[in-house]
Automatic annotation (TrEMBL):
This is Aldehyde dehydrogenase. The active site is at residues 210, 244. Keywords: NAD, Oxidoreductase. One of its GO terms (biological process) is aldehyde metabolic process. SUPFAM superfamilies: ALDH-like (SSF53720).
Amino acid sequence: MDTYSQVVDRLRTVFRSGVTVPEQFRRTQLTNLMSLVKENEEQIVKALHKDLAKPKFEAVLSEVHILTNELHYALNNLRSWMQPEYASKNLATKLDDCFIRREPLGVVLIIGAWNYPLQLLLLPLVGAIAAGNCVVLKPSEVSAATDNLMAELIPKYLSQDCYTVVSGGAEETKALLQNRFDHIFYTGSQNVARSILQAASVHLTPVTLELGGKCPCYIDKGLDMTSAARRLAWAKFFNAGQSCVAPDYVLCSEATRDALLPALRQVLEEFYTKEPQKCPDVSRIVSQRHWTRLMELLKKSSGKIVLGGESDEEDKYIAPTVLVDVAEDDALMKEEIFGPILPIIAVESVEQGIEFMNRQEKPLALYVFSNESSVVKKVLENTSSGGFCSNDGIIHMTLPSLPFGGVGASGSGSYHGRWGFEAFSHRRSCMLRGWALERLNGLRYPPYREDKLSW
Ligand code: NAD
């Protein structure tokens, strides 16, 4: 078996041969990736079920379809993305060709996370292939079934010379990171991101960080609470709350909270029955470690559980759970929850809600539910977050024409659609000059004279 440095050297030699650059090559690989997903959908759904008890519907919607949509979008737009972008010119460059050329970066590393193990590995790959790179893919070891399936399928469908899967955990990833890559695309936690940045700094490698954070949802008064509860509960409890863009906590007035709670109770029953543990639409927590972490948070919280709260360690199950009377310094507010636990925090006004959000790190997504466009506008204009969506959750990230990424502690860089292609491309500034107007150039050559400046 090759060592990691042999793997990277081999890919670099292949990259330098130029094989990944022609449009037709990129197109073929993207089409092959589409076949991988379509021909193996059943196996993919099974692996996701093994890893997270992911319901088939959620697996198809949030992993398979999002990927096939991205592939269609890339195949439809690839030619235009690859075209040179002509730049505006001034008098001195009037006769020149001035343009931006998108060039592949070289050998790039994509490190995936476990919560959407297919999507988070292969969606960046679409951008990397479209941009003409060679790629090392490192799936998350935590979602082992999907990791194994990817290691088996990718070499069957994609060029083995250009794309390689390396499996392993933290130690293997650290060893891999000792090598020089031309870009590192990392999805995962903020803590690990710090060591990724350290490793990247040795080779001055540019990095895209797709991280998480605590995504707030401000809920205004006077809403149709059943619709609000449906949209909130769907976004929060999809994949058992293990989504980087899941609403992490709710901010609302006490009166709104009192109207929201009965609606949430009714909606949770409607979605997941009276016995959610037996409901096939409820995912499980990915590992015993994460289950214990979530239960510790619940134990340490001084909030009051008003919905759910049941759990089963062996089954890695935690019921969709809602808490009230949660203070800003509560255990649940110290880290991203990343599970089916929703604290509701009372604020007196939208202004107080905005101040609350602005005291926290900038989140990956920020939500506001309101009938009033002035309230939506106020929250939009007075906060910062990777993405923003009013009157719904998660759904903004399904549109490939919107860049997806964080800001501040929730990440840097973005992808999806054209933005994925851009993330893995170098924008090379090009000026192609001829030999005309040499006399005009005399104005900038020595001997320098004052009057040449005022020309
Ligand atoms: P994880 O445990 O799967 O880790 C992510 C990747 O980092 C894995 O491939 C893992 O092997 C690798 N890794 C782990 N420890 C490492 C180390 N010490 N050095 C180098 N590599 C290491 O996933 P996680 O970190 O638990 O992911 C959850 C976090 O990811 C949450 O914060 C979530 O919000 C965030 N997330 C962000 C996005 C996004 O698109 N912005 C998407 C999903 C998840």
